[in-house]
Amino acid sequence: MPEGLDIILLLAGAFLAGIVTGLTGFGTALTAMALWLYAVTPILAAPLVAFCSLASHLFTVRKIWPDMDVRAAMPFIMGALVGIPGGVWLLTWISADLFRLAVGVVLIVYPLFMLLARTPPTLAGRSRAAELGVGVASGVCGGFAGLSGPVLVIWSQLCRWSKRRARSVLQLINMAILAIAVIAYGVRGLVSAELLKLVVLCVPATLCGSWIGLRFYQRIDQESFTRVILVLLIASGLGLMLPRIL
Known about the structure:
Blueprint: H1 5-24, H2 28-36, H3 42-64, H4 70-91, H5 96-116, H6 128-145, H7 149-158, H8 163-187, H9 193-219, H10 222-245
Helix pairs in contact: 1-2, 1-3, 1-9, 2-3, 2-5, 2-10, 3-6, 3-8, 3-9, 4-6, 4-8, 5-10, 6-7, 6-8
């Protein structure tokens, strides 16, 4: 069980991740990993992300359930079923340093895309094959590091989903992917007693953050606040990568 500074990093990451997830419907891994990977190994951090993120989604879903569109989410969920086992397999084979580098790249590239692409390309029509492919990619990222959100968010931008549609569909897809990922971690033998202790430590902090994030979503202009969060994510990615590059 971590002690001292490691516990502070775990709790801070869980709390901040809860705020981001409560606000946007995704982002637990993007926020928490920058701190958690200094406190625990990737083999613990990735399943911990899945547990905390799923807890956050279950906590906030009651507020947005009327907007949920299960039919729209199904192609992505079906694709994720294919992708998650591959992501879990990667988790057990990739090195810790390479894992941190990969997470850092996502933390920088994804927010930069969101900040710079003020008028991103628009996809005309709806392709079931493309939605399945996006689901597979999200499943791989979700099984690998709980990073199921970024691919889906970029897709929602390209399709010009409304704020309510994007939030509801993304959360439904993430809930399904993360629930499957938790099961996959158990089948793979990655749900250890040490992990469960971390879950007990971090989930309450995540739920507290989710409560605050949900209030932001309901009462504050989301676009402005999301831009602040994206800048913080870029800073987190740089902090994760630079010590290993310099």
